[in-house]
Amino acid sequence: MSSEQPRGRRAQRRHLTALFSDLSDSTALASSVDPEEFAELLETLNRTFEQIIARHGGTILQVRGDGVFAVFGMEPNEDEGRRATEAALELHQAVKNISFQSPLPGFTGLTLHTGIHAGLVLAVEGDQVMGRFVLVGDAANLASRLSDLAGPDEILASEASLGRERHFFRTGDAREVSFEGIDERLTIYPIEGRAQVDTRFQARSLGPQTRMVGRERELNRLRRAFEASSRGEAQSVSIVSAPGVGKTRLVEEFFAELDESDALIFRGYCESYLNAEPLQPVLQILRQLLNLPEPMPGSAAALEADLAERLRRISPSLVGHAPAIAASLAPATGKPQPTEEETVLAVSEIGEVLAADRTTIVFIDDWQWADDATRVTLRNTPERASLRLMLIRASREPLPDGLATETIALEPLDASHSISMIEALIPNADRVEVEQVRRASGGNPLFIEELCHAVARGAQTPVLNERWPSAQIPNYVNMLVVSRVSQLSERQLQLLQNLAVMGNVVPAWLLETAIDQAGTGAAIEQLAELDLVFPVDEKGALRFKHGITREVVLETLGRDLRQSLHLRVAQILEERFEPGARDPVLETLAYHYGETRDYQRAADYAEAAGDKAMAISATDRARLQYHAALTALDHMDEDAIYERWMGLTKKLAQASLYDADRGQTAIFERAVRLAGAREDLRNLTDAHYWLAYLNYALGEAPLAKRHIDEARRLAVQLGDEVQTTQILATWGQIHGTACEYDRALPALQEAMSKQQPFRRKPRIAFAYAYSLACKGMILGDQGYFDDAFACFDEADELTRGPIHPTQGSILSMRSAAYLWQGRWEEAMDSGRKNTELGDRMGSRYLAAMGSVQAAYARWRMDPGASIDAMTRALAWVETNGQYIWTSLHFSWYCEVLVALGRYQEARRAAVWVLKRARKLERLGESVAYCALASIPASPQAMVSTDRCFERARDSAEFRKSPRELTLIDLKEARVLADRGAAVEAAGKLSGCRERFSDMQMYWHAGEARRLEDHVQAT
Fold it and tell me: Which terminus of the chain has a smaller tally of CB atoms within 10 A, N or C?
């Protein structure tokens, strides 16, 4: 638990599960008895610790008086968390069974209290004083803290240590805990005992499950094999894949189809656990077949008699096997163990009897862990072709030739099925997040599930260098990778480590330059066969099959080795680097030099990479690189890098205009403090301006107003007319978002008049075009569509050419105007274009807004159309934090949900809109109130119908929007007509159709005419 690595000792990074267990109330116990008596107790405890922890595959690092510190995973194994918990349960029971008398009042027996946690640690070689190893890292410390937190006879295990294997145990309610000095919050479970769960699949299937996808071809092969076995053609099927790809899930899906058939199905499984019994799957199947009670009869004679009777019911010819089966099932009875031949004969004859006239399926899971006796017993398909038998073996390793009549090699899911699974698990994920999960998982369903659960818990999906910290993944998944990697030869491991340092995708030329080629080709082929890497093109570039694998390999590399490899790669890349090159070498160099702690070079290359990304409007990459450069500069002297740091904040701000991040506000607030402390007026003006713009983009209008007013004051003081004009334009945009049109329009017009002579210059053109679009948005809201689209057309003309984020903003505002006017097809087209543009630029916000607009327009044209895209996009918006204009999009969603009768969801969407109105963004307020007014009256109504329409009018009048006021009349008339108040409805409709026609809102005019006809008819 040391915080520093002792010098001169060997050390290795490992994923381990730590267990701390102490005797409860030991101080009081020690003081209540003679020292000799307590010393005897400690000796008994130590023997108990040693025996039980060794039996479960653990390693004792220290025995400290009445407590033990042990770790599981020194020999890599994927179920170390389960082993630690099983060991804890056995320890607790064994200590309670120790006979010990104490004069303490209320003493009822000895108990332990235990904590279990898992994570990445540095295992440093110890000595006689420190113990066998010293663990550097939080995992051991947190296990110790959990032990201290546990009460008498309580076991507290973290979610990180068990993952979904916690379902092997009965647990209390989960709770979150935190400890002083440690940032990490832990989810922990009190372990109450073992659960009635036998297999890892059962344990993991108790968690969230999704519909199986992408396995129809494999299911068809199982169906055909079943049909053949039903005809009396015995079948032996092997299903082979890497762990987590879904072998067991495939078989269980197949069995679910057979529920209505009369087939007999028996399941057995093999496991790597140390106490697995010989012939485990065979004996499991015999217990199922003979329907044996638990517990079985105690004496050998009683057991044999019971088995003989059960075998007689199947067939009198089987009774003679009762002694052999009894000895196999209960070796403790003292009967001589049957020979291998006797066991094989018994199993074979029982199978033949069952399968002679009824289709029988035997499924053995995890065959790769089968013991020799099991392999011999089930080595061949029964020779009698007339048997209606289907033997299925699932294995991570191919079965020997001739052992299976049918082999199904189960591959990872392809891209489309992976995406389908990801979207089912995290419906609010945007396209970028979905793609990141897909790449990191490599199509492995288990990895997909765990990455999706990590995202659902709040984990941030990676972009830069595609790093996905393994701390976000349950330890059993990390250990699944570690256990596979531990089987590699030294040459294979060195190659995999080099590849992990080089990147997720490694070009062939880099591999050839950096690595000694002797034996490399064969090692690469072996790594590919093990499903760890695969070639991505004909040039020989390699990619990790799973991003998780790369992360685990990287994290288990020692610091010095990792840094030396990063430096070697950086030097090779630098030698090859050509200024102006379009490949990603700049950001790769920034990454590698950052890992070597050469912060100057890291900052230089990251800034250059950001500039290159901005030149092609790859704003997501630019933001990451500028942020990386700022982080690198933070390791250097503040005074020496001040000017450069301030310059980088401006670049970061420009890259963030169309995808603001709330986490960046701290950077610009720091810029305000730094510039203010130096009385640097120019940089202080810029810092306030960019802080205003960031808050504007986040939808925080009150904060944006405060900072833009300060920036405007400072700019006037500076006397910089260009900057003053830019600030005035932004001042108008901010007030436009707040629907303060009387203030916004004059400011925008004044700023544009000053920019007019220079609007053909690229920088001015985009600023001018954005102001034009904002003006068009205001005019469109008010119903002046000819003027609005003239603004959009001019803005389009000014930004024509290479893609730029401003084009997305113009498209988004144009699409909103189309929707207001009822031009659904054009709105849908603009929304789709915006989504495509957002995807190309890496702008999640633009892509989400485009998705909502396109989905709403599609629904308007076809009320039966799916709104899933709208739901996903807005779910992402809720968690993203960039809220500008979102009141409008949520109000449309509210309107749709009301029409679909999903009133509770509609109220929730309306709450979002009303919260945004309190942030001065009132654009969707009246639509939301009208939608609420359309919900049938109920006790859950947020506001009365009349009050809803009243508030809707207040909002429309505040915005001076004749368009919205006319729509409110139409919607209120519809509600009145539904109530049967025809006269009042006709009054509201009076003049609606003409006003809609005057604003060229012809679809709405048609709706008004149809409602007029309906009212007149009633």
Answer: C
